């Protein structure tokens, strides 16, 4: 039985407006950064997990890479196809849940950026297993020695803003590091309440998850959108970045 995922519903509705977000404005510089870390040969295959509207996937294809973009949202993939057509490039688009995606080829590099699936937990998902399942799917897809560049929500920053009231109300669950947000949406069929969950991770947990998934962490940096850099994570940052390499013997 297929699970209902509220994030799929959210992004289907948000897809036409997604590129208006301020954090989508640095695509070329972000791809420059990613390619320096991936060190993947021109023409090689790159996996974009949680590709959204395809802004990184399309730019990678424009620069001569072969790309598979995976996303749970049909609406986001529809926007991605439009972007690829406008850029006159070909990208392999796959609609799939990142936790269960099964690659049909091995990739020379992978990205999972701006909460591309990682950290976006459905109400029916196990929040502890969710991120690890995504990392395992990516690791399985990578060639030995290939590199993943991924951003994740930084729990250290979130904890500074949360209160005991958030725990008491059930908004924040410290056992799973998930935050629940209740939002009212104005939809064609009327106004309805939608519940969303985001999962934060602490840096040490992210390193451990990568190791369990068969990835050796090379770097853990500050990864907040618009402020990427090869620099230490700041405690209050929204996001962090991990650069990890698929183990040679996995």
Describe the structure.
The chain has 250 residues and is an alpha/beta fold. The radius of gyration is 17 Å and the shape is globular. It has a single domain (6-246), classed as Vaccinia Virus protein VP39 (Rossmann fold), CATH 3.40.50.150. The chain has a seven-stranded mixed β-sheet with strand order 3-2-1-4-6-11-10, sandwiched between helices. The chain has helices spanning 6-14, 27-38, 55-62, 74-87, 127-141, 155-159, 164-169, 203-212; strands spanning 45-49, 66-71, 92-95, 107-112, 120-121, 142-153, 172-173, 178-187, 190-199, 215-222, 239-246.
What topology does this entry show?
Layout lengths: L5 H9 L12 H12 L6 E5 L5 H8 L3 E6 L2 H14 L4 E4 L11 E6 L7 E2 L5 H15 E12 L1 H5 L4 H6 L2 E2 L4 E10 L2 E10 L3 H10 L2 E8 L16 E8 L4
Please tag this protein with its features.
250 residues; alpha/beta; four-stranded antiparallel β-sheet
CATH topology: Rossmann fold
Please state the overall shape, judged from the principal axes of the Cα atoms.
Answer: globular
Total helical segments: 8
Tally of structural domains: 1
User: Reading side by side through the largest sheet, how are the strands ordered?
Assistant: 3-2-1-4-6-11-10
The secondary-structure class comes to alpha/beta
Task: Summarize the structure in short.
This protein has 250 residues and is of the alpha/beta class. The protein has one domain (6-246): Rossmann fold (3-Layer(aba) Sandwich).
């Amino acid at each position: 039985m297929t699970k209902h995922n509220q994030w799929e519903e959210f992004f289907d509705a948000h897809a036409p407006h997604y590129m208006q977000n301020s954090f989508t404005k640095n695509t070329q510089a972000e791809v420059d950064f990613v390619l320096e870390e991936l060190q993947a040969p021109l023409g090689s295959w790159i996996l974009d997990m949680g590709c959204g509207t395809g802004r990184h996937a399309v730019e990678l294809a424009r620069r001569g890479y072969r790309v598979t973009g995976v996303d749970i949202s049909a609406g986001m993939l529809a926007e991605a196809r439009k972007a690829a057509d406008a850029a006159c490039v070909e990208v392999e688009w796959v609609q799939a849940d990142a936790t269960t995606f099964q690659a049909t080829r091995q990739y020379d590099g992978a990205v999972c950026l701006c909460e591309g699936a990682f950290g976006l937990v459905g109400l029916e998902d196990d929040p502890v297993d969710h991120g690890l399942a995504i990392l395992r799917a990516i690791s399985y897809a990578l060639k030995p020695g290939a590199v993943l560049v991924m951003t994740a929500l930084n729990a250290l920053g979130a904890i500074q803003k949360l209160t005991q009231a958030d725990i008491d109300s059930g908004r924040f669950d410290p056992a799973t590091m998930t935050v629940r947000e209740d939002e009212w949406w104005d939809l064609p069929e009327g106004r309805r309440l939608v519940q969303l969950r985001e999962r934060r991770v602490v840096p040490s947990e992210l390193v451990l998850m990568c190791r369990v998934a068969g990835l050796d962490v090379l770097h853990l940096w500050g990864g907040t959108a618009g402020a990427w850099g090869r620099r230490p994570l700041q405690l209050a940052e929204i996001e962090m970045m991990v650069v990890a390499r698929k183990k040679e013997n996995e």
